[in-house]
């Protein structure tokens, strides 16, 4: 029986797909944790837990006073 993907991973993968697909361009501000929670129908803690995954993949970056944005793409 297949195991369902954890909600926080689903959110992280959705953000990654939006960035890689060009829907979120470098420098674009990501939705707030509250907005992500509402869109995905999860608790804010679950949305918050999703954020380190795209950050570790260097897809997003936090900017003090500005929020979390899609990272500049490297030449990979």
Description:
The chain has 76 residues and is mainly α. It has a single domain, classed as Orthogonal Bundle (Arc Repressor Mutant, subunit A). The chain has 4 helices and 2 strands; from the N terminus they run H-H-H-H-E-E. The protein has helices at 7-20, 33-40, 44-50, 52-56; strands at 60-63, 67-70. A two-stranded antiparallel ribbon has the order 1-2. A hairpin with a 3-residue loop joins strand 1 (60-63) and strand 2. It starts with 6 loop residues before the first helix and ends in a 6-residue tail after the last strand. The mean pLDDT is 91.
Q: Could you please say which CATH topology applies here?
A: Arc Repressor Mutant, subunit A
For the record, the count of structural domains works out to 1
Oligomer: single chain
Shape: globular
Rounded radius of gyration (Å): 12 Å
CATH top level is Mainly Alpha
The percent of residues in helical segments reads 40-55%
Distance between the termini: 37 Å
Give the CATH H-level superfamily: Winged helix-like DNA-binding domain superfamily/Winged helix DNA-binding domain
Average pLDDT, to the nearest integer?
91
Give the strand order, joined by hyphens, for the main sheet.
Answer: 1-2
| Major beta sheet summary | 2 strands, antiparallel
Contiguous uncertain segments of 5+ residues? none
Organism: Micromonospora eburnea
Keywords: DNA-binding, Transcription, Transcription regulation
GO molecular function, one term: DNA-binding transcription factor activity
Pfam families: GntR
